[in-house]
Structures are given as C-alpha cells and as structure tokens.
Amino acid sequence: MDSIPILKIGSALLVTIQVDMHDQLATRLQDDLTEKIVQHRARGVLIDISALEIVDSFIGRMLANIANVSRLLDADTVVVGMRPEVAITLVELGLGLPGVKTALNAERGLALIGGVSAAGEAADDADDD
Amino acid sequence: MLCAGVMPLVVGGGILAVSDKKNLVSLFAEGESDILANWVSTLNLGEIRMTRQEAESQGRAVLDALAKAVAHGNSSDMRGGEFADVRDVLQAFSRSRALQGFSPTETATFILSLKRSLFEQVRKTTRPEDAFDLLSIVSELIDRLGMFTIETYQKTREELIARQGKEIEELSTPVVKLWEGIVALPLIGTLDSGRTQVVMQNLLETIVQTGAEIAILDITGVPMVDTLTAQHLLKTVSAARLMGADCIISGIRPQIAQTIVQLGVDLNVVSKATLADALALALRRTGRVVTKVKAPSSGASQEQPAETRG
Known about the structure:
The complex is a heterodimer. Chain A is of the alpha/beta class. Chain A has helices at residues 23-40, 57-72, 84-92, 106-128; strands at 6-9, 12-16, 44-48, 76-80, 101-103. Chain A has a single domain, classed as STAS domain (Transcription Regulator spoIIAA, 2-Layer Sandwich), CATH 3.30.750.24. Helix content of chain A is 51%, strand content 17%. Chain A has a 5-stranded mixed sheet with strand order 1-2-3-4-5, with helices on both faces. Chain B folds into 2 domains: 18-167, Orthogonal Bundle (Globin-like), CATH 1.10.490.130; 176-290, STAS domain (Transcription Regulator spoIIAA), CATH 3.30.750.24. Chain B contains 11 helices and 6 strands. Chain B has a 4-stranded mixed sheet, with helices on both faces. The longest helix of chain B is centred in the middle third of the chain and has 45 residues, at 128-172.
C-alpha cells in the first residue's frame, strides 16, 4: 500500500499531498503522522494541500483530527496552499477547521512554524543545560 | 378572421374592398388637419402629461406617417414595409416616454384617443351605408397602433431593467488592494447566497493572486444584516481563513451592531467601526505604522506609512 511521505525539517514535519486522497490513505497518514510527531518530538506540522483538488467531509475531518492530535502532542499544525474551490467546499460542508492554522503557501507556513520550532529548540537547549 | 400574435390589418376575411380602401385613403388625405385639431382638443393633456405643442407635433408626425402608409399600403399589414414610418414614429415616441418614466397609460392613451377623432371624421365625411365598414377598419388600425406602442414601451423598460441588473452585478463585487498584502472588499447591497458565492470566489482568487494576508470586509453598504447575512459573512471569513488570510469586518453601523447583538449572532471576528480603523489595524499587523511627517510644507506632505516591516 502506498503512503504519503513525511519529511522532517528541523523540529517540524512536512507533509506534501501530491495524489488524490482516498480514505485509506488519509487514515494511514493520520497514523504515520502521529507516530512521527512522537518519534521526532516535532513542534510543528506543515501540510501542503496545493495539489489537492477534491475534498470531501472525510478529508476535511481528517485535517481537523490531525490538528487536534498534534495539539495534544504539543505540535502546531499549519495547512498551506488550499485552493479557493477547496476552501469554498469546506466552508459549505461546515468544516471551517477551527484550531488549524492556515497560510497561503508553504513559505509562509514554514515561517509560521519556524518561529515555533526556533522557540522549541531554544527550550530544548535550555532543557539540555 | 384575425390570427393571434401577428398583426395583419385584414378585415372581412381578406384584402380590403376597393371602395373601403379608397375611403380610408381619402379619410386621411382630406381630413388630416381636422383630425389633428380634433384629436388634440379631445386629449386630456394634464392626464397624459403632454404639452399642447408636443401633442400637436407628435400627432402630426403620426398622422403624416399613417396617411402615407395607408395611401401606399397595398397590404394592410402593420408589419409591412409601408408602415415602416408609422412604426418608427411610434417607436421613438414610446421609447422616449418610457425612458422619461411616463406610465403605460399615459403613453398609450395618446394614440388610442386618435380613434374618437377619426370616428368623428368618418361620421362627417362618409355616407352612412359605408360608414360601418370604414369604422371597423379604423378601429382595428388604431387598436394595432396602440398595441404596438405598448409593446415598444414594455420592451424599452425591459431593456432598461436588464441593463441596470447587469450594472449592479458588475458594481457589486470589487476587490480592492489597499496596500501590499491587504485587500478590501466593499460590500454593497443585500448579501444573498448567490452573491455570497460570487463575493467569496472573487475574494479568494484575489488572495491567491496578490498573496494578501489580510482581507477587510467592509459592510457599510449592506442595508441590513439578519441571521442569514451574518452566516454568509462568516462563511466568507472562514473560507478566507482557510486560504491563510485573516479577515477584519468593518463599517458596522450602530443600528446594525444592535441588530446583530439582538439576534444573538456571534460574529466572533475582529471588527472595527470604520474602514480607516480596519486599515490601521491591518497595517499594524503587517508591521507598519502610520506616522505624520513633521514638516507639512515639504514636497511629500501626505501621511506616509513608514515601511518598517517587523
């Protein structure tokens, strides 16, 4: 079964969704991501959905779930690159994704998380002392 | 008999009898000035809101065209080429009346009251045995002229409405770039679900194009806000948020603020009273401050936001 790669950059995790999401893939991503957050002690998760053209309520809920799980594990989630049509669809579905941070593109998303991860590293350094 | 829909002036099951046609032609040719004088005098000018001069010149134009049409008109069809002049005159009359805001009655009464004057003329000039046939022809002719006038009137009004509708549509959803990274959406008119869709699409497209981080929704021009409108606003706000742009709502008038609270709507969005306040906040959020330049006499005397990004 194929899966979506999860890259580690500093203390953040980068997920780029390049294929059409089907439900199994979404569940798998959720599981993998949770594992990786714990494994890498990640402080931020960046999900790039600029290639995602179709969303349904399941994918929408998956995004909200990932955000909630990450928050429990003390990591911020940023969803970046959402297309206008996707945004309108999600809103019409009643999924405003409260609690999920958003940014226009990956660059701004990284800047959002960058602050978090730098602060995290500083905290980590302080712990090490 | 007459066919519905088309406008042939055919009476008695076919082409006019030769004697009737001759009578009709001579009716107009010989009595034109009498008919006109009679026509104008029977008009209730106050009721149809025309001056005597207007009525006279307009009436003469109609009668001239009619006389010519009847004289040349082999076919008695109002859509035929012989009646082109009549149609033009009536069309111009009806169009201008419609555009100036006169009512259909005020417009059509002018044409329809020609009938009485013509009847009078028929009574005076025609032998009783021919009068009935001629009357029915004249009556029918005037009815058709009246119908044509009303039709033109209505067409003009419909064109007007269609044009205004289009203009409103075009005017209603502009997205303005106020500053680098800041766009504003001045909403004007009622926000129904159809318009919300257009507004939302416009806004999101602009966010993608300009890379704006902050969108200001200005609702100064929204006449009333009910629960549905508030819901539409919130939808737009959350769609923009999903694209990574923050929204500020501005231009909430005092009554509207009260209405929103009384309705129990929780807007839950940053809101400012005026667009100026919203812009100031947006500038501050993007790390800019608006300061007054000290010496107003120098060349650049306007307020310039200092470009100090944080």
